[in-house]
């Protein structure tokens, strides 16, 4: 999983009065490197050598900040070494003690620290008293606590200009990160935006707003021509041909459903859904989220316009999660999982209703093909096939079979998420041996080349380079399962490419409609009430009734008003509702009226949900 946004940014800013800061007196552009380090950590010592070389290049343009993170269990005596550095700092010699500690062997004792203090010209008696000063120990523990809040788990952990740096520690990589060439600046800006809790929601809603603006502007005809343009795959005729909007809605959105499915799968194995009763409430709510809106619509439209009852059935889960993202920490993890699980149940229920009441779009033969492909994926898991490509090929076939069967093809992403294999966690010792052997051989070859004096030979051209790269890659790959590799590769694309493109091609609906026909107002009111009132009430009543009956569990980390807000946001309609409006009313004026009702109901549901979430307290979560 990617690092949480509250951990990838430095929570406590650099303070020159409290932190230990080195350099930065130059007026030119400065970069700040902050290290959480341990004086007895051999890797911190190695990194320190690289940073010295970087400082020689950048000079005072580089600001270096050190915070203590002693790992007493792994390196006994590391806390005493940190206190010694603080004691030296009381006499104005922190950095001299810092250099001396990293220049020595790992073992330190009280006597060896006193010897270092005398060699630095410190007042030895005062230094020895300060080693027992509880305020210095508290100062070290404060850094340690700050590091833990920031997700630091090992040393050294690097932050560059307030953002966690997870890149390579070699000289050229660090120098590039600090010098900030254009490419690195673009990457850093993109990462800073992605780390904002609201970034996903903003990207989606901006794209949706742009679509509505285009669809109701002089560029409307160009926009409609673009989203309705046909794009085919295969021979003509006989190939698969869909509009751009359909490819985005049913094709691209498959990637989003993969991420959604992987999130739910993770919660089922080690999260809020480990108790299966936690899944009962959203599953039942997914059914009532189709039934109750239909009842509300039919109550308003009992006559000739009753055919539109399926229009408000589906929830636009991408938009719902996008709006939830805007509220950042106010939305608990358990609440997000509830909404995601509800969405899958809602999609499956609405697809079933579509197949039953619009049988002309349903093909039993292709559905049986889909079942066969799902069975094949289960066999892959049984055979312990850990390569990703067989599952991806099966998913493409499943998508095609579902589409031809008349079922929403993007649901193939859920199947991929369900069957991507995981692997037992490896023994760290064996991987450490493999990685250490590869790096030791590289280091030995590097020394040999330097000693030979042959300037024409380069390390990357030696046979050991390719051998070491293969072993390091194998060790790194073993740390992540195929499911985790797919999630890491696709999650940024899903959030910042797939969903905004989907929103831009799906949300562009004209706001003009003919309310002249006698029942047009009924259609409009029925759709609005079904989405903004019927769906949220159906979700809330069903979930709470199941919890009262003790057959289900509601998210324990979400306040009641936050749950109400999320239920209202589930009233945001899926763009599929526009297609259903055309199917229900064919070419009559009621179709455009229903589409405006879908937009109005979604906006009203968003407003109600946003108000409830704004009034809700931040969730209380357990400490890590």
How do the helices and strands line up, and which of them pair or pack?
Elements: H1 5-8, E1 20-22, E2 31-37, H2 42-58, E3 62-68, H3 78-90, H4 94-103, H5 110-119, H6 124-130, H7 134-149, E4 157-160, E5 163-165, H8 171-179, H9 182-195, H10 199-215, H11 220-228, E6 230-233, E7 240-243, H12 244-270, H13 277-300, H14 317-326, H15 333-357, H16 364-382, H17 389-405, H18 412-419, H19 428-452, H20 463-478, H21 482-506, H22 520-548, H23 560-569, H24 576-585, H25 590-615
Helix pairs in contact: 2-8, 3-4, 3-7, 10-14, 10-21, 12-18, 12-21, 13-15, 13-22, 14-15, 16-17, 17-18, 19-20, 22-23, 22-25, 23-25, 24-25
Instruction: Please state the second-level CATH architecture of the largest domain.
Output: Up-down Bundle
Q: Estimate the mean pLDDT confidence.
A: 85
Quaternary arrangement of the chains shown? single chain
* Overall structural domain count: 3
Helix content: 55-70%
Distance between the terminal alpha carbons, to the nearest Å? 16 Å
**Poorly predicted sequence stretches spanning 5 or more consecutive residues:** 1-6, 182-186, 192-197
Q: SS-based structural class?
A: mainly alpha
What's the alpha carbon Rg, rounded to whole Å? 30 Å
**Residue fraction in strands:** 5-15%
Summarize the structure.
This protein is mainly alpha-helical.
What this model shows, in words?
With 624 residues, this protein is mainly alpha-helical. The protein folds into 3 domains: 5-190, Glutaredoxin (3-Layer(aba) Sandwich); 199-229 and 243-362 and 490-615, Up-down Bundle (Na+/H+ antiporter like fold), CATH 1.20.1530.10; 428-478. The chain is 64% helix and 5% strand. The chain has 25 helices and 7 strands. The chain starts with a helix and ends in a 9-residue tail after the last helix. It has a 5-stranded mixed beta sheet. A two-stranded antiparallel ribbon has the order 6-7.
């Amino acid at each position: 999983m990617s690092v949480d946004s509250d951990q990838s940014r430095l929570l406590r800013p650099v303070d020159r009065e409290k932190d230990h800061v080195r350099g930065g007196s130059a007026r030119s552009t400065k970069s700040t490197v902050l290290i959480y380090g341990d004086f007895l950590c051999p890797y911190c010592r190695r990194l320190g050598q690289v940073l010295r070389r970087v400082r020689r290049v950048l000079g005072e343009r580089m600001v270096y900040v050190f915070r203590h993170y002693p790992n007493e269990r792994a390196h006994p005596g590391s806390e005493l070494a940190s206190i010694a550095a603080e004691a030296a700092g009381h006499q104005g010699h922190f950095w001299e003690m810092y250099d001396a500690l990293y220049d020595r062997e790992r073992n330190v004792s009280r006597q060896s620290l006193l010897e270092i203090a005398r060699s630095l010209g410190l007042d030895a008696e005062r230094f020895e008293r300060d080693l027992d000063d509880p305020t210095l120990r508290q100062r070290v523990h404060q850094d340690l606590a700050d590091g833990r809040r920031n997700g630091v788990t090992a040393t050294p952990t690097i932050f560059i200009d307030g953002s966690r740096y997870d890149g390579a520690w070699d000289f050229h990589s660090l120098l590039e990160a600090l010098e900030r060439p254009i490419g690195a600046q673009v990457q850093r800006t993109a990462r800073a935006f992605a780390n904002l809790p609201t970034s996903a929601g903003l990207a989606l809603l901006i794209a949706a707003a742009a679509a509505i603006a285009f669809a109701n502007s002089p560029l409307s005809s160009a926009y409609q021509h673009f989203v309705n343009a046909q794009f085919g795959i295969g021979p003509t005729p006989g190939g698969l041909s869909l509009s751009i909007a359909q490819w985005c809605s049913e094709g691209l959105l498959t990637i989003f459903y993969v991420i959604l499915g992987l999130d739910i799968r993770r919660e089922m194995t080690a999260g809020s859904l480990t108790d299966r009763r936690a899944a009962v409430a959203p599953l039942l709510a997914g059914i009532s989220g189709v039934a109750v809106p239909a009842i509300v619509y039919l109550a308003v439209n009992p006559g000739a316009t009753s055919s539109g009852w399926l229009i408000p059935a589906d929830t636009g889960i991408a938009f719902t999660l996008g709006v939830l993202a805007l509220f950042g920490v106010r939305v608990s993890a358990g609440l997000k999982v509830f909404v995601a699980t509800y969405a899958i149940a809602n999609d499956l229920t609405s697809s079933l209703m579509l197949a039953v009441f619009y049988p002309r779009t349903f093909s039993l033969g292709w559905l049986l093909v889909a079942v066969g492909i799902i069975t094949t994926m289960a066999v892959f898991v049984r055979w312990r096939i850990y390569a990703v490509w067989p599952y991806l090929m099966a998913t493409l076939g499943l998508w095609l079979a579902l589409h031809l069967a008349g079922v929403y093809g993007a649901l193939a992403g859920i199947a991929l998420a369900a069957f991507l294999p995981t692997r037992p966690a490896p023994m760290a010792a064996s991987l450490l041996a493999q990685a250490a052997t590869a790096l030791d051989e590289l280091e030995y070859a590097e020394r040999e080349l330097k000693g030979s004096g042959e300037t024409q030979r380069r390390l990357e051209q030696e046979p050991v380079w390719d051998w070491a790269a293969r072993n390091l890659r194998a060790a790194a790959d073993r740390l992540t399962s195929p499911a985790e590799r797919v999630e890491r590769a696709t999650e940024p694309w899903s959030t910042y490419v797939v969903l905004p493109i989907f929103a831009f091609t799906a949300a562009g609906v004209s706001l003009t409609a003919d309310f002249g026909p006698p029942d047009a107002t009924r259609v409009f009111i029925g759709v609005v009430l079904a989405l903004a009132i019927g769906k949220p009430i159906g979700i809330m009543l069903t979930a709470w009734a199941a919890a009262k009956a003790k057959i289900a569990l509601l998210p324990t980390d979400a306040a009641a008003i936050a749950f109400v807000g999320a239920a209202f946001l589930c009233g945001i309609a899926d763009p599929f509702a526009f297609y259903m409006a055309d199917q229900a009313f064919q070419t009559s004026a009621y179709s455009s009226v229903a589409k405006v009702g879908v937009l109005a109901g979604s906006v009203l549901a968003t407003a109600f949900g946003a108000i409830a979430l704004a009034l809700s307290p931040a969730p209380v979560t357990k400490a890590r």
